[in-house]
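Slide 14.
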Amino acid sequence: MKNVYITRVSKFLPNKPVANDTMEDRLGEINGKTSKGRRIVLRQNKIKTRYYAIDEEGNITHNNAQLTKEAVEGLCDESFSKHDIELLSCGTGSPDQILPSHAAMVHGFLQNGNVEINSPSGACCSGMNALKYAYMAVKSNQVNNAVCTGSERASSWMQSSIFEDEVQHLKTIEENPILAFNKDFLRWMLSDGAGAFLLENEPKGTTPLKIEWMEGYSYAHEIEACMYAGGDKLENGFLKPWSEYNSDQWSKQSLFAIKQDVKLLGKNILSKGVESLKNALEKHNLNAQDIDYYLPHISSYYFKENLYDEMKDNDIEIPWDNWFMNLSEVGNVGAGSIYLMLEELVNSGQLKKGDKILLSVPESARFSYAIALLTVH
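Slide 15: predicted structure.
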């Protein structure tokens, strides 16, 4: 088995950063009215800027695969070209289409010859699953290098046009139709962007990061769906897919919009996350105090203090000074967030040999978690 190192990191964020007061200009108003939930959500998540693959005139500038292709090309230079890539593993929660797969579409844009591809599905953990597949391929000596990515292009799922048919339908039922909060909530949470890592079996580059281990946990056997798209949740918790609805209901119920069961999120996301983290640390005999940099993907700063308290109550406290996040500047990019955090940390110039970096990614879709430990080589 080979050692595996992250030897290059890259990101791509489309267009200029979008401030809170211009979000609705870019995404559009629903039924000609400003969202009542927007200010509440933004006050809690404390995100100041984010990026959309939509320009100031409302034109779409990139799809998801194009964002990802740009991030991958950011890894390349005269000493490592896109034609040197042996495996391409791409995770996302917002693919451009159901088929072909996301990685296939990225590969199509790259035009870099015949390579193996892998497309983990899911939400935030899909980016970590892409990393794990690449990690295992290099570690088992299947390939000498692999590129993995995490990306989202959620903005097109959140534009007002997606919800207009539903609101118009609601007008026939009630006088003042309001979009349900579980749909409106995520319009002010999610962002676009892509990140990429190059994995190799030798510690090349200026700041190679050795991947020590990766762990994953799912609680789908205990908890019903919390964040979902392409279906609707019935009162008994069953998730009914879009394919079982008549096509005229797809737009009337905004079945393809991303929805969030906020109550279920608050009840489970932290407790299960800390349970997973504690299990991973105990499995590998690692003390929380030994972590130099803790990179937690959280969707909102609303959860930050409570996450710290939950960790402290479970004897895995990591001091505030060791936390590293960039949510307020780049927004919640789902599967790409952990890539963007690590890219910024690596390029900050503050890492030194021997530093231990803990990556922690939750996914509220049906509560799964991915955790990894890196060491600066």
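Speaker note: Residues 262-283 form the longest helix (22 residues).
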